[in-house]
Write a structure and sequence with these properties.
Strand content: 25-35%
Largest sheet: 8 strands, mixed
Shape: globular
């Protein structure tokens, strides 16, 4: 838990941001009752590298990360990274395992990086039920 808090503090302190190479994989959090806004090109490219380094991961590892429980159960896959208006990573959108392809917004403070024999992923102390209770994610319209 301390590691998760440390990562969240480090990301906030350093003003780290995140992104991906496709527009809807990195979005800025929307204003209330508004759609999320995709983050474009160069800003997204620079941000992804910084956020990945905060987790001790490469850009491709962060974008391809699984979300695991502490007992190594695969809970889902990282789909989208959410930035605040200042460009800092605040949430990862995870498509949960199971029926319905439910995507939820997981706060950065609830995840940490984990290295298992060279395979880097994200880990959480949240249960599947707690994850399912998080705010659902609706992708921005293209």
């Amino acid at each position: 838990m301390n590691r998760m808090i440390s990562l969240a503090v480090a990301a906030g302190f350093l003003g780290l941001t995140a992104c991906s190479d496709s527009g809807d994989d990195v979005v800025q959090a929307p204003a209330p009752d508004a759609a999320p806004v995709p983050v474009a090109g160069t800003r997204a490219d620079a941000a992804t590298t910084d956020a990945a380094l905060a987790f001790g991961m490469s850009r491709s590892q962060l974008e391809d990360a699984d979300l695991l429980s502490r007992d190594n159960t695969d809970l889902g896959d990282v789909e989208t990274l959410i930035l605040d208006p200042r460009g800092r990573l605040t949430h990862v959108v995870v498509e949960l395992e199971g029926p319905g392809d439910l995507k939820v917004q997981v706060p950065l403070g609830d995840v940490a990086s984990i290295d298992q024999n060279g395979e880097k992923d994200l880990v959480t102390d949240l249960t599947l039920a707690q994850l399912q209770a998080l705010p659902a994610w609706i992708s921005p319209a293209r």
